[in-house]
């Protein structure tokens, strides 16, 4: 928090207070009274430049993407072992987005992403990261053998099943769930591009509420269903990482194993 406040102040912004908006593996702060959102991460656990580069291009294309703070140089700032990026803060509008608006925003985001040519991970890289966590008992010491076997088998099966669909691929948000979509006066805006990857659009749709899929043109519902189970398996794996700081993460890990068993009942 002190690092974010110092960086903002040193760039001419007036900062008297930092309010925590989200705190898990990365920290999101609202800096006041300048009203800027700061994202903070340890320097060794970040890909902030990747996120900044994509966000700038999407905003230029008119995509529904939150913008970097215009009063400072749009770049990654580093100090005291942390990296900080400064973003426009948007006031939220009361009420939830209706499914059609959500799907339209995601479709427009995907359209902008198809114009971007930037080296990016593949969605299977994230599966591989999850598989490595499952295999590494030092990284996931509290994961019982039964849960470990379930996750290992599920990740292998789901990766193979998605590949068998031979779906077309493009740059994706990676985690366009409701927590990463702001309902603002400017309309719906996506945030948090650190998980951008290449893959089928159905992988992104699997992070959105189920009713959104019906409003997304030409989505393969069968593939979305498989991707939803994959997302469940990966998210459950993250919760067993000893370094995970997600609130109530261990209970979410237990719940995730139960949901995964039910989802794959009769398959594995």
From TrEMBL:
Any GO molecular function: transferase activity
InterPro entries listed in its UniProt record: Aminoglycoside_PTrfase, Kinase-like_dom_sf
Gene3D superfamilies named among the record's database cross-references: 3.90.1200.10
Pfam families, sorted: APH (PF01636)
Keywords: Transferase
Domain called Aminoglycoside phosphotransferase: residue spans: 44-209
Protein name: Aminoglycoside phosphotransferase family protein
């Amino acid at each position: 928090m002190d690092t974010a406040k110092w960086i903002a102040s040193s760039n001419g912004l007036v900062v008297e207070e930092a309010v925590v908006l989200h705190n898990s593996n990365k920290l999101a702060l609202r800096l006041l009274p300048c009203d800027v959102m700061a994202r903070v991460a340890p320097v060794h656990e970040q890909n902030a430049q990747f996120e900044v580069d994509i966000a700038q291009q999407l905003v230029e294309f008119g995509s529904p993407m939150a913008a970097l703070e215009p009063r400072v140089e749009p770049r990654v700032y580093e100090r005291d072992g942390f990296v900080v990026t400064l973003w426009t803060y948007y006031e939220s509008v009361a009420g939830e987005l209706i499914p059609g608006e959500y799907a339209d925003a995601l479709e427009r985001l995907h359209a902008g992403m198809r114009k971007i040519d930037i080296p990016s991970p593949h969605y299977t890289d994230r599966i591989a990261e999850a598989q490595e966590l499952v295999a590494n008992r030092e990284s996931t010491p509290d994961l019982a053998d039964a849960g470990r076997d379930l996750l290992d088998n599920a990740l292998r099966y789901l990766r193979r099943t998605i590949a068998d669909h031979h779906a077309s691929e493009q740059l994706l948000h990676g985690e366009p769930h409701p927590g990463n979509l702001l309902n603002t006066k400017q309309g719906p805006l996506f945030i948090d591009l650190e998980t951008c990857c290449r893959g089928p659009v159905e992988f992104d749709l699997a992070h959105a509420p189920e009713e959104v899929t019906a409003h997304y043109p030409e989505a393969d519902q069968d593939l979305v269903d498989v991707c939803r189970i994959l997302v469940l398996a990966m998210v459950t794996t993250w919760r067993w990482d000893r370094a995970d700081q997600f609130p109530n993460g261990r209970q979410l890990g237990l719940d995730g194993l139960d949901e995964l068993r039910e989802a794959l009942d009769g398959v594995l």
